[in-house]
Write a structure and sequence with these properties.
158 residues, alpha/beta, Rossmann fold, 5 helices, 4 strands, 39% helix, globular
């Protein structure tokens, strides 16, 4: 029997701020739409520096204020992920280039897209990395993710 579940992977650099937040926001929207039986999501980073660590405390705190509970541990994207996921959404240009670099034969190019292709309310062409900034940066990231996840879900569901 063929698996008809849509699988989405969100990718940032370290998998401790943007991509785990995107996974959590998207999962909340999937749950709200009662589509958990049809759509799964995950997140990964282009580097393995933080593998096994929880999401950044600041991101977890800011997300919690909005009712999101970021769980899971950071992991690095693997070439096999390109085959396993229907959509691979990257947070910025560097992430996009790194993920494209895993697809040496070009088999999965159509699956790999910038997340901001789905953002409508903000002019950002990338989800900015809040790691070295203040708390407002984490809030702004969540604003972008909420907008983009809503529009992405509209695009992939009938």
């Amino acid at each position: 029997m063929k698996d008809t579940t849509l699988k989405i992977l969100f990718v940032c650099m370290g998998n401790i701020c943007r991509s785990p937040a995107a996974e959590t926001v998207m999962q909340a929207k999937i749950d709200e739409a009662e589509l958990t039986h049809l759509i799964q999501c995950d997140s990964a980073g282009t580097i393995g520096l933080h593998s096994g660590q929880p999401a950044d405390r600041r991101m977890r705190d800011i997300a919690s204020q909005r009712g999101y509970h970021i769980q899971g541990k950071a992991r690095q994207i693997q070439a096999k992920d390109l085959q396993s996921f229907n959509y691979i959404l990257t947070m910025d240009r560097d992430n996009l280039e790194d993920v494209m670099g895993l697809d040496r034969q070009g088999y999965y190019r159509e699956r790999i897209q910038p997340f901001c292709n789905y953002v409508r309310r903000y002019r950002d062409d990338a989800v900015p990395d809040p790691y070295y900034g203040g708390l407002k940066g984490f809030d702004h990231v969540l604003d972008i993710l909420e907008d983009g996840c809503s529009h992405f879900l509209e695009q992939i569901t009938p």
